[in-house]
Design brief:
By secondary structure, the protein is mainly α. It is built from ten helices and no strands. It has two domains: 74 residues; 86 residues, no CATH class. 74% of the residues lie in helices and 0% in strands.
Length: 213
């Protein structure tokens, strides 16, 4: 599948990536956890904790340990459950799930990879109008079509593609989601071309034209 493309890591939104060196020295993570627990209604503290937990998934020893990554994700899930209306917290969870999915696949850990995909599905189901949750699910599903193809699991790839298609309709103004759907369709069309499946190739290309028209 020569034209296959997917995303490697979730990038942090600039509004969420304030330099920790700015202003006062940041609290250590243990103190931040304690402060956030003592002030559950303080949205700024909850957001700070979510960002710190997400950053820990991207660097240092936590990022290298599947067990530590799982622990941080559990913390982010619990924080998201306690702050269901906080978009910043929810976005940190979505980015964390996606990044761990990519890392787990690279490390040959399909159980953790699939658990992260399920986590993104659950997050989107709980917040179907939330664009960051939908966007990270779309990118994860695009990657998952590639992973399934590489494993020769073509029925699973097509099932994931069926799951990805409705996201474009759910978020018609989101260019990244539409790109993910279009790219997955293109990858499938290239594969159909290589296998000599002209009817399927033509049907997929017609979908792409409708999506981009």
């Amino acid at each position: 599948m020569a034209d296959s493309k997917h995303h490697d890591r979730a990038s942090r939104d600039s509004s969420q990536d304030q330099d920790e060196d700015e202003g006062a020295a940041p609290m250590n993570l243990a103190d931040l956890r304690a402060e956030a627990a003592a002030h559950p209604d303080n949205a700024e503290l909850q957001g700070d904790l979510a960002r710190r937990l997400f950053r820990s998934l991207c660097r240092g020893q936590v990022a290298k340990s599947p067990e530590s990554r799982a622990g941080r994700l559990d913390e982010l899930r619990a924080l998201c459950a306690s702050q269901p209306a906080d978009v910043a917290v929810r976005t940190c969870l979505a980015m964390g799930l996606f990044n761990v999915l990519v890392d787990a696949h690279a490390e040959g850990a399909p159980d953790q990879r699939n658990a992260c995909l399920d986590g993104l599905r659950e997050l989107h189901a709980a917040h179907p109008d939330d664009e960051p949750a939908g966007r990270h699910l779309a990118v994860a599903l695009l990657n998952s079509t590639t992973y399934a193809h590489e494993a020769g699991e073509f029925e699973r790839r097509d099932a994931i593609l069926d799951e990805l298609r409705p996201l474009a309709a759910a978020f018609p103004e989101d260019e990244e989601i539409r790109w993910c759907v279009g790219q997955a369709l293109l990858n499938a069309a290239v594969d159909a071309e290589e296998r000599g499946d002209t009817p399927n190739r033509d049907a997929l290309m017609a979908e792409i034209r409708e999506l981009t028209g």
